[in-house]
Amino acid sequence: MTAASPRRPETIAVTAGRPTAAPGEPLNVPLVLASNFRAGTPDAPVTEYSRDGGTATWHALEAAVGALEGGIAAAFASGMGAATALLDLVPVGARVVMPTDSYSGVRALLFDGAALGRWNVDQVDITDTAATVAAVAGAGSDSSGRPADLLWLESPTNPLIDVADLTALCRAGREAGALVVVDNTFATPLGQQPLALGADLVLHSATKFIGGHSDLLTGIAVAASGDMAARLVRRRQLAGATPGALEAFLALRGLRTLAVRLARAQESAGVLAARLLEHPAVERVRYPGLADDPGHALAAQQMNGFGAMLSFEVSGAAAADAVCRALRVVTNATSLGGVESTIERRAKLAGQEHIPPGLLRFSVGVEHVEDLWDDLSAALAAG
Length: 383
Ligand SMILES: *Cc1c(COP(=O)(O)O)cnc(C)c1O
Fold this sequence. Notes:
Layout: H1 9-15, H2 50-53, H3 56-69, E1 72-76, H4 79-87, E2 94-99, H5 104-115, E3 119-124, H6 129-137, E4 150-154, H7 166-176, E5 179-183, H8 188-191, E6 201-205, E7 219-223, H9 226-239, H10 245-256, H11 258-278, E8 284-286, H12 296-302, E9 309-313, H13 317-326, E10 331-332, E11 342-345, E12 359-363, H14 369-382
Parallel strand pairs: 2-3, 2-4, 4-5, 5-6, 10-11
Antiparallel strand pairs: 1-7, 6-7, 8-9, 9-12, 11-12
The structure holds pyridoxal-5'-phosphate (PLP).
């Protein structure tokens, strides 16, 4: 008998993180509502407090996401809680190279840390591989000549949908002795596996595509090594950004259907991006699935599919706001990755001055693509 081929990601998303396959066991790890557990003995220690070692509900989610990413996962209260734990891996005074475009909350966290003297930040356009490699090696704008301690990457980015050459940049990070973190929220664990491309650490806001229903906040950090995973769990234990029990349960429930949700949403994203490109009111479309998008070739290499996030630009802030107001099926809302399509004019947020004022970030959901197009084309005509 020949050995079965390794399970495919769509199957792992369904099968990982289950209880043992014994008669009478439930199919799902139950929702464990517990802070306190009966004490163990010196010979047989157990987790006695959930903040220390987690619960079976957290572990099921961690096992599934870890299996998909090829690493060891730790769940947190939110994506930002996981980001904070990741940033705690570097010493005070670290040199952090970060993208000019990335999630607004992480940017604010990095700038606040720099203002407090926690680390120094050096911003680079991560689509410029040569400039990023040089900044990591020590030719950054702070002119210290020191190599980076941490390279923070996000690909595709929120909201400019920039695609970074993860293989080349992870190699540069390794050569400089820097930790490399990739925020993989937009790609999802099914669309991209940064650890396999050379990253040390991966971040997910499970609030988005993993949860998939706009009903929870959860974050997940995934480490390539057991040592780094243990350091992340220690940050969670001491800083206290623990996931909620129901949130962890629902995030895993969401992950079970990620493959079908993502397949539908990204197929629709491709159709809508192509139509938006032809629309007279649309000045630019950013989606790596478009053949002439600057990120197309790289995304085709390093991603499985092009994702369900796209951005498009209309003539200015007023026109973009009018589109948001006129939409009926697509919801004007800030979060993303849900079954429901959402849209937001990102430049309205503080600290997002680098975003074109008429840029709309569009999270494509699982509605019928023609209903989405009818809604968009009517709103563009009204705007
Ligand atoms: C939302 C988001 C985060 C932050 O996650 P929360 O769960 O909101 O704390 C981080 N990165 C990206 C790319 C995001 O979209």
